[in-house]
């Protein structure tokens, strides 16, 4: 049931990407100790090329003999260059993309479960950034993900996405025809910490597991009510609530009852079920999972039970992954994100604790998520004198006239608004932004359009 080949592939990706980011601080510490040596600039560039794979801004190095080396500037520069290389490699080589047969099998299985689309809203906490490809083992290109603090997703935005999906079924017969008896599945993922529930749970809900689960449940119900009030009966969508233990990546799934209602107290625990099936062959384990799901969710629709069982089976692979490669329990049970991702996009980020997300169109709209993110990075970076690195990005569809220009204008507006929201951090060099846009309709790579590092007067651009 657990694919070692897939786990090896995911481990290689996680190791390569995180190692690239984690080399930055040790490198800068060594560099700082050598800033007054003869030929420092040339030595620094040699070190950077050899250890990081790119050069550093020369004027910052040239100024080191006049004043202290600007480590804040170099830290942000290195994070942004590392991110850009990682993102470009991801879009060019698609290291996690499913092959055509795998994608076809997923779509077939999904429709056999009675669904034509899966829309997932996890918490924006970086410990859930890998929820699609790793935790749930779903194909990231075929499942929609938008993250919000506390999994409190934007109901109106989700409603628009539902409309777009249904219109595609009417107009383009994608992913199936409008008269097919399938439904749209909205899934919210809250989180908790099994080792330190009172401190390492969801910050947006005061580390309360009960509040996190209830908040996600209420938001799902609001979404269903919005569709019922605006269009038709709720039979066109289904809801599912999932909890994630961020210490172990084990999930608990809350299946709906016969009326589609969710109960946070009713769930199947993935960790317990994994232990129960250890030693069984794949078929016996699959049958045991189906039995446990049926026992808890006997009143759920058969297709929903099949989908829930599939999620639990998929999660077994991630539980095995964490036990094999992280001792069964992550060492960084708390926040350890490397940068903030702000705007719209970031489908390439499928790794735990790599990015804190703040999906937004305007700073005012996304203020709660931004504030939580800056608070997290104040503890991770600012208290140590390092800046908050923010990748500000808006993806666009190149086939739409004027889309790129609007994406660029929005990116620059949000960058200025972000600076105005956190003026003290920005003025002290403790908040830096990389501005980028991307043509997602053409699977393009990033186009960097600016950076706050240009304000320092180096004259060098990313």
From TrEMBL:
Residues 336-452 form the Carboxysome Shell Carbonic Anhydrase C-terminal domain. Residues 106-335 form the Carboxysome Shell Carbonic Anhydrase catalytic domain. Residues 3-91 form the Carboxysome Shell Carbonic Anhydrase N-terminal domain. Keywords: Bacterial microcompartment, Carbon dioxide fixation, Carboxysome, Lyase, Metal-binding, Zinc. It is an enzyme of class 4 (lyase). It catalyses: hydrogencarbonate + H(+) = CO2 + H2O. InterPro entries: Carboxysome_shell_carb_anhy, CsoSCA_C, CsoSCA_C_sf, CsoSCA_cat, CsoSCA_N, CsoSCA_N_sf. Its main location: other. Its cofactor is Zn(2+). Its EC number is 4.2.1.1. Belongs to the beta-class carbonic anhydrase family. CsoSCA subfamily. This is Carboxysome shell carbonic anhydrase. It comes from Thiohalorhabdus methylotrophus.
